[in-house]
Design goal:
Oligomer: heterodimer
Order of helices and strands of chain B: HHHEHEHEEEHHH
Strand content of chain B: 15-25%
Largest sheet of chain B: 5 strands, mixed
Number of helices of chain A: 6
Largest sheet of chain A: 5 strands, antiparallel
Strand content of chain A: 35-45%
Radius of gyration of chain B: 19 Å
Low-confidence stretches of chain A: 1-14, 16-35
Distance between the termini of chain A: 73 Å
Shape of chain A: globular
Structural class of chain B: alpha/beta
């Protein structure tokens, strides 16, 4: 005989009331008044779906840049091609193919930065300048592991180039043979530890006003800004909220005599993907990626942070609504954030799209920030 | 007692059989691997046609390496056909990544980990070349050798993909 006793019907009614009340609270909590700062700051616009066919498709995005005319350059390392798409998403052409020739990618195109009429693209141990309108490779120059194209000014290219010996973090070059101008600050941790300087200090840098450089690094949760090339440089604290941050305590424990400990940490800190001037340089926008290696491919969640550098206040970082696998790539033009991502449709077909968000800095929940 | 001896004997025979199967040359074993369409690898071998049988890991970085793209290029140019097998079983995230990259998988197979990747090049049902395990695959670069052995006007023309 069962000993389970049936609850009286009044209990069922009580349960119903509790569920109803919880539902009401949940609805109230998701009302527009209590939305997070990110949804207020980032206003989603209609995405652009890129036109692809079985013979011309984006296999695996490895870089992305929005050109001056609003068209898109998409690096695709899987197919070793730089795709050029119109504003509408129609495919204009594929530039280059895998090979050793002058108009060929040796290793496959990677990170891309849009200049005036050029796109600067990583290609293994080289940086290539490509004229997208003609599909021609204009020049190529060797780079070291610490040289990543991070932004451009007209046809000049800003390379990351952290060099504690020289006391500089970036190099502005004018072309193929130009040795460039070194400048920018070197944070203390990178000065003190050569492993940190080698593995964790790829700065994202850009000009936010004439001769004024803004810069963030993987090894320090600060925005640095000042007169290019030699400063003085000021700093504002960007304490992480949701992103992983620089993990500076862990980085400080890396033994310079044991590089493998540094290598193990390499995807742990947040990686600054881009830094751009917003609203004509009144604000600085930084997009960070929390990277994750999954089965040999890079994935990652994105966060955006807005800094009012003159007023010394910040709109602390917020997540960007985009699939994390594969790693989305971003660019920012005027006040629009473009996020290149891929997903599968209900039939399992691949869709490559560019999500667009209007960045509304006026809607930020500002908080004051400290210096270093 | 007799039944027990008989059972032990059967077990020994099975163990020996499995041991022998494991020692069989991989180019023989690969022919018996099942495909998604219910057939076996040996069924795709067609007289007079070159066929590359590839056993790759779903966790491989397909965009970092030219291993698969070189075979794909040869297939596009009409030199051969590819049968791509995956080992171990891909996760859902791996399958999604393979779909996004439009990598067509013909089968998921059980293949010793130390033998992944493996590449076999058949002409009809005759083995032309094989590379088993990461070192051999890297050293032999079968796709490049296959391209050199059978150049065609198509192969010498500019690639047509992603024009």
């Amino acid at each position: 005989m069962s000993t389970v006793t049936r609850m009286p019907r009044s209990f069922d009614y009580l349960q119903f009331c509790i569920v109803l009340a919880l539902g009401g609270i949940s609805v109230a909590c998701s009302s527009p008044d209590s939305r997070s700062a990110s949804s207020l700051m980032l206003q989603a616009l209609a995405p652009v779906t890129l036109s692809e066919t079985d013979s011309a498709f984006v296999g695996e995005p490895s870089g992305f840049a929005v050109l001056k005319d609003g068209s898109f350059a998409v690096s695709d390392r899987r197919n070793a091609v730089l795709h050029h798409f119109a504003v509408s998403g129609a495919r204009i052409r594929g530039i280059g193919r895998r090979g050793e020739g002058p108009n060929e990618w040796n290793s496959g195109p990677t990170l891309a930065v849009a200049g005036g009429s050029l796109v600067f693209v990583g290609d293994g141990p080289s940086i290539r300048a490509v004229e997208v309108s003609s599909g021609q490779f204009l020049w190529s120059r060797r780079r070291t592991a610490r040289n990543i194209a991070t932004s451009s000014i007209d046809e000049g290219l800003m390379l990351s180039d952290l060099d504690p010996t020289n006391g500089s973090s970036v190099r502005l070059i004018a072309g193929e043979a130009d040795s460039g101008v070194r400048g920018g600050p070197v944070p203390g941790l990178a000065r003190a530890n050569p492993i940190v300087a080698a593995y964790f200090s790829h700065p994202a840098a850009t000009f936010i006003a004439p001769d004024t450089l803004a810069l963030v690094l993987q090894s320090a949760d600060f925005l640095y800004f000042g007169r290019f090339p030699s400063g003085p440089f000021d700093s504002l604290s960007l304490t992480p909220v949701e992103r992983r941050g620089s993990l500076s305590a862990e980085l400080a424990r890396i033994d310079p005599a044991n590089p493998s400990a540094g290598q193990r940490l390499i995807y742990r800190p947040s990686y600054p993907q881009i830094i751009r001037a917003l609203h004509g340089g009144r604000y600085v926008a930084v997009v960070f990626s929390d990277l994750e290696m999954v089965s040999g491919r890079m994935t990652g969640r994105l966060f955006i942070e807005i800094i009012d550098w003159r007023a010394r206040r910040r709109c602390a970082e917020s997540p960007i609504d985009a699939p994390a696998d594969p790693l989305p790539y971003v660019d920012l033009r005027e006040d629009t954030l473009f996020v290149l991502s891929q997903r599968l449709d209900s039939l399992g077909g691949s869709i490559t799209e560019i999500r667009r968000f209007r960045v509304n800095a006026e809607a930020c929940a500002w908080s004051p920030v400290d210096s270093q | 007692m007799v039944a027990r001896r008989f059972a032990v004997g059967i077990l020994l025979l099975l163990a020996m059989g499995l041991g022998c199967a494991d020692r069989a040359p991989p180019e023989i074993l690969v022919l018996e691997l099942p495909l998604q369409n219910g057939s076996r690898v040996r069924d795709v071998l067609v007289s007079g046609q070159r066929q590359a049988i590839l056993v790759y890991s779903p966790g491989m970085c397909y965009s970092c390496s030219t291993m698969l793209t070189q075979w794909e290029q040869l297939e596009r140019e009409g030199h051969l056909r590819i049968t791509l097998l995956m080992s171990p079983t891909p996760t859902d995230a791996d399958l999604a990544a393979l779909s996004r990259q439009r990598i067509r998988v013909h089968g998921v197979v059980a293949w010793p980990e130390k033998r992944v990747p493996s590449e076999f090049l058949f002409e009809g049902d005759s083995l032309v070349a094989a590379a088993v395990g990461p070192e051999e695959v890297a050293a032999k670069a079968l796709a490049r050798r296959a391209a050199v052995r059978q150049p065609s006007p198509q192969a010498l023309a500019p690639a047509q993909n992603n024009p």
